[in-house]
Amino acid sequence: MPGIPGPEIGRPPTVEPDGGATLLGWLARMRDECPVWRDDKDQVHIFRHEDIQRVLSDHAAFSSDTVGRMSGGERQAPRGTLLLLDPPLHGKMRRQISRVFTPGLIAGLEPWITELTGQLLDAVGTDRFDLVDALANPLPVTVIAGMLGVPVTDRELFQAWADQLLSTDPEDPESVRRTEETAVTISSYLQEFIDERRREPKDDLVGTLAAAEMDGARLTDEDISSFSTLLLLAGHITTAVLVGNAVMCLDREPELFQRVRKDRSLVPAVIEETLRLRPPFTRIERVTTRQTEIAGESVAPDTLVQVWLLSANHDERVFEEPTACLLERSNARQAAFGHGIHYCIGAALARLEGRVVLNALLDRFTQIQVDPDAHLAFHGTNVYGARHLPLLVQRATEFS
Is 365 helix (H, G, I), strand (E, B) or coil? Predict the structure, then answer.
């Protein structure tokens, strides 16, 4: 890959120990000095907003099928794993899923999500609690389980599975083995409910998918299982991280926190600015299908491309004062949920849950502060959020 700077720059920093400050500094340097970079594994990283939008829009040159292409065709992603599908199959699957995952369905969930949020906060018995354990993790898992039609009482199982998948180290054979076992366990768990819906149809999401057809044939069990797994895990992680990140953003600017408390119409803007500043996933992957160019640099076919969403969202060429939390800015171009045909199908649900949670916290607590004495442990380089977020709160009188 002549012309593309090589691995002497070093690996991307982790989010720890400074909560991402070093990583953001590294990304800013790369945008300015090295917008296309090849690491020591011959993967190409891109950092500028313009280049990222172009790559995510050009699915002919930049495939989402990283599993199939990087394995030389030996392995194939299940059709229900939308993130790893290319057209035309992606469009066919997405249309089927979109018929049941509609804006109307999402909007209709708000009363239930509001009630559930209240129940989870009712169970908080002290003036110090972990936002992730008490609310940010159980809420989205319960919502998605309810939509799918699997028992919400199994949410601890879902959380354990998500933790395993998030902690996978692709360079550690034992870690990879545990992850493969987890995938088999999830599939076996879901198969029971797919079989039930085949025998006795229901109008939950698993039941609707079991009755759906594509090209004149029913979706396979693997299709349904893989999409359900995607919702349970990716959907849960997205909202859980978003909720914690929104509180962290406001915690760093107490005056802004008070402003939002007085004017709740700003809550949607807080969610959007949080998504820009701290997108749940820092990067996603594509693989080149042919010899192509990125920002004038030639890239060989079958090259894995790391697309840095976090960097796109901090690109000074698009966002003024990119590290500041500015609620007045337009975030129409922020990339937290991707771009193009793979724009996150659960984006509306994540936004809704984020708004409901933030309003509920402001209703119940007159003061909210991240515990300054707590050590915050973060997820790995790919997920941008704290594993736990201890809060110090003062309850409103009506909730005392």
Answer: strand
DSSP calls for 24-81? HHHHHHHHHH-SEEE-TTS-EEE--HHHHHHHHH-TTTEES-HHHHHTTTS----TT-
- Per-residue pLDDT 10s for the chain (400 aa) are 446 887 778 788 888 888 899 999 999 999 999 999 999 999 999 999 999 999 999 999 999 998 878 777 767 777 768 888 899 988 988 888 887 778 888 999 999 999 999 999 999 978 999 999 999 999 998 998 899 999 988 888 887 887 777 676 666 788 778 878 888 898 899 999 999 999 999 988 899 889 888 888 888 898 899 888 888 877 888 999 999 999 999 999 999 999 999 999 999 999 999 999 999 999 999 999 999 999 999 999 999 999 999 999 999 999 999 999 999 998 889 999 999 999 998 899 999 999 999 999 999 999 999 999 999 999 877 889 999 999 999 998 777 6
Between CA 359 and CA 357 the distance in angstroms is: 5
pTM for the model stands at: 0.93
Which helix (H) or strand (E) segment holds residue 382: the answer is none
- The three-state secondary structure class of 302 is coil
Torsion of CA 66, 72, 77, 79, to 10 degrees: 100
Alpha-carbon span 389 to 370, nearest angstrom: 7
Task: Answer yes or no: are the C-beta atoms of 30 and 312 closer than 8 Å.
Answer: no
What is the total residue count of the chain?
A: 400
The angle, 0 to 180 degrees and rounded to 10, between the axes of the packed helices 173-199 and 221-230 is 120
Q: Encoding tokens for residue 263? A: 């004017």
